[in-house]
Fold this sequence. Notes:
Number of strands: 5
Order of helices and strands: EHHHHEEEE
Largest sheet: 5 strands, antiparallel
Protein name: MaoC domain protein dehydratase
Shape: elongated
Organism: Ktedonobacter racemifer DSM 44963
CATH topology: Thiol Ester Dehydrase, Chain A
Number of helices: 4
Low-confidence stretches: none
InterPro entries: HotDog_dom_sf, MaoC-like_dom, MCH/BMMD
Helix content: 10-25%
Domain MaoC-like: 13-111
Pfam families: MaoC_dehydratas
Number of domains: 1
Structural class: alpha+beta
Amino acid sequence: MYYFEDFQAGASFELGSKRVTEEEMIAFARLYDPQPFHISPEEAKASPFGGLIASGWQTVVILNRLFVESIFNHTIGLGSPGVDEVRWLKPVRPGDTLKARCTVIESTPSRSRPEMGIVRFKCEMLNQADEVVLTLIGIDFLGRRSQE
């Protein structure tokens, strides 16, 4: 189990990887981001992307899952107030394998809630060519070790 104190500025974590299939991309986009270049391989060919691409929101969700499985489920997680600075830098294509890493950029004990601290992570998602496709700043509330 990890606690707030285990996440000091500069610490970096590899989060694993996920291969994205065309079927998953289309299914996600049909539900949540039904733009032609996300749901129709034929229409996507005529788009500025020249082919089908994943919804940027799907890449955020994949990063979240990798983060939760690799880090958050092994902490005293107390929630999150949100994310900052979401940037989609390159399109994700069918068959891409995405891997993620997060680095602690700030770790601050809460002044109002001494049982927790606030950790800010800079997270990156990379494709199989090690090109960064997504960056974001994640903010998490983590439980502290007993202060007794």
